[in-house]
Amino acid sequence: MKVTVSRKAHFNAAHRLYRKDWSMEQNDLVFGKCNNPNFHGHNYELIVSVTGEIDQETGFVVDVKILSDLIKEHIENAFDHKNLNLDVIDFADLNPTAENIAVVIWNKLRNHIETNKELEVVLYETPRNFVTYKGN
Questions:
Q1: 3-class DSSP state of 108
Q2: Distance CA 103, CA 84 (A)
Q3: Can you tell which superkingdom this protein's organism belongs to (predicted)?
Q4: Would you call 53 a catalytic residue per the annotation?
């Protein structure tokens, strides 16, 4: 019997969508106002879900306190009130789109979740725009 346990979190961050190897015109055409050279920000909402068998001894799929601590340590502390382009090494050469941010978050957490458990990251950039990543 598999059950999914989820934890919600949030962080505020600025970013700019652009490619260094493109002209300003091409960046504007593809990324529009998200290419603002002075950056722009979002109040990101994050849902991290772990799916697996219920441990018969504890009754948990995953201890929510441990999951909460992992999100705080590896995601919120790393991203909250940061400029993703300038302050977060993961985006030094990676465009910080919602899709790429979700993959980076998944990769940061995957090593801390038991391998027999499935991990899913849902990242809301706005209340109406969100992405989901479940791994390869």
A1: helix
A2: 14
A3: Bacteria
A4: no
34, 99, 112, 118: the catalytic one is: 34
- Proportion of the chain above pLDDT 90, given as a percent: 99
Contact (CB, 8 A) for 78 and 88: yes
Band of residue 79 on the pLDDT scale cut at 50, 70, 90: very high
Q: Give the pLDDT mean for 1-26.
A: 97
For residue 84, the SS3 value is helix
Judge whether 120 counts as a catalytic residue: no
Cα–Cα distances (Å) from 60 to 8, 42, 90, 114, in that order, read 17, 33, 32, 13
Of 40, 53, 81, 114, which one is the catalytic site residue? 81
Contacts of 119 (CB under 8 A, 6+ apart): 48, 49, 50, 106, 109, 110, 113, 134, 135
Is 73 assigned a catalytic role?
A: no
Mean predicted confidence (pLDDT) in 10-15: 98
Query: Which token pair is 2?
Result: 């598999």
